[in-house]
Amino acid sequence: MNLQLIEVYIPDHHYPSINEKLQEFNHQSYWVSSESKERMLVRILVKTKDVEEILNYLEEVSNVVEGFETLLFTVQTYLSKDTIHEESKEQKEEEEEEKAKLQRASRHELLNAVEKNSKINWNYSLLILLSAIVATVGFLKDSEAVVIGAMVIAPMIGPVIAIAFSSILGDYKLLGKSIVTSLYGILIVCIISVLFGYFSDMGTETDQYLDRTKVNIVDVFLGVASGAAGALAFLNRLSGNLVGVMVAVALLPPTVAMGMSIGNEEYELAYGAFLLVTVNVMSILLAAVSIFSISGIRPVRWEEVKRANVSRPLSITFIVLIILTLIIVILLGKGWIS
């Protein structure tokens, strides 16, 4: 049983009404204590699936009540008479039904993670820089193992997932930051590979390089699968390392190939690599936006709901149109590119 603990600090004069409302929500256990002369402390132990509904209510209250604070903790272990006894058949059936659904962490936890992923910092910059160098060397040596190593350390999944998540919420400020961060990472990779390509004649005839300068319709499916895997891992707050490799497969090598082609003045090959990068990015975004929509990611406040209702369909329509346009370009220009 996945449980979380919500701590709520409530001013005394608002306590009776808020306490009554909180007790209406599903919970496993409920404790009340006096925090100070001015505030009461309420602790609520709830199942993970019930957290978001309670947090949505608390978020609304915190906008109008001064001195109101909420904390959320993950519970590792909880023992009581009920938990020690064997679960009934009905409870087991409920859990099996719940497992069949698309589960996720609360919107508030996910939003906090997205805000971190949308920021440019030294850690992100250094990992992008190092992964670009390693991947480019892997191309020059035609070493698949080295290229895979570069994809392991490339933090490219975070900003892309942040773009999809913020577009679902209609948070345009966060969307802009996420786009800038993603483009910043791609630009660093491109600059590093351009420099290697300009100063080195090696690597332009290797399989690792040539495979990333050609684009086919099947690459759309690779991007969609990568984006869906990344979105699902993010929703469940799983370790992003393995899934991040899958997203990096679609983004890092073709970006390196594009930079090396520009550095070698092989502009036709650079065009093919550019198409591959664009197809992969848009396919990842389409899958991630779709997964987030299906999982029920929604804002709470009225003005945010209105923005999200406009942003969500626009995002999906825009991405689909770009993908369809790219597919047409691929089909029309395939003979010229190859």
UniProtKB/TrEMBL annotation:
Keyword terms: Coiled coil, Membrane, Transmembrane, Transmembrane helix
Coiled coil: 85-112
Keyword field contains Glycosyltransferase: no
InterPro entries, per database record: DUF389 (IPR005240)
One Pfam family cited in the UniProt record for this chain: DUF389
Keyword Glycoprotein: no
Chain segments annotated as transmembrane: 122-140, 146-169, 181-200, 215-235, 242-263, 269-294, 314-337
PANTHER family recorded: AT15442P-RELATED
UniProt cross-references to NCBIfam families, sorted A to Z: TIGR00341 family protein
Protein name: TIGR00341 family protein
